[in-house]
Every structure is written in C-alpha cells, then in structure tokens.
Design a protein that fits this description.
Strand content: under 5%
Shape: globular
Largest sheet: none
Order of helices and strands: HHHHHH
Number of strands: 0
Oligomer: single chain
Length: about 140
Amino acid sequence: MKRALAAFVGGGVFGAGLLISQMTNPSKVIGFLDFFGHWDPSLALVMASALLVTFIGYRFVLGKPEPLLDTEFHLPEAKDVDGRLIGGAAMFGIGWGLSGLCPGPALASATFAGTDITYFLLGMIGSIILFRFLNRT
C-alpha cells in the first residue's frame, strides 16, 4: 500500500510539474526546440531544475543502503551505446520535435487537449506494440 501511495503522489507531483511548466503545451515545446526561429528559452529553466533535482536526489538516495519502499535499488545495467539506443533516441527526438510532445506530457494532457493528443497516443501505443512484436524473444 505504501508503494502504491508513493507512486500515486509521485505521479501527481510529476503531472502537476508538467502542467505548471507548460510541457503539455506543444506550441510551447516547439518554441523551445526552434533554435533558429523564434526560440523560447523558458523551458531551459525547467530542464535545468530537473537536472539539478536529479543530480542531488541520486547522490542522496544512492548513499542509502537500500530504498525506503523496496529491498534493493533497480538501476539500469546496460552501459553500451549501440545502434538501438542511438536509433531510439533519434526517433524520440524527431517525434518530440514534430509533435511538441513526449509520452509523459501527452498522457498528462490527454484529458483536455482534444483529438491531436488522441492521435499521438494511438501512434505511440501502436509503436510500442510493434516494437514488442518485432523484438520478442
């Protein structure tokens, strides 16, 4: 129950942060990504704040012998930079630049943003299903 409550609260804080920072507004995000046009640097503060919180948080949390609500830390083990990582990052970046949305803000804005978000989410879910189908072992 504690884990579910912590996940709920963490998700709520994350979603509120996305809404307050306007990361759910595709035109705001595209304005941030448009370096050679009418660049809007306001989201740089949001990203810098996220990096700072993550940097400090990881130092603090990983200094503990175990997590508060689990028996061990679950950190990524893969360290290789390979074609799949580069290709996935490129696809993510292209999709983010074209739509102004990434998965978190798209889900956060799904309740109020209309049909464009629905099409984005359908494409995202379809891509996830296709990836899992093509990479099943």
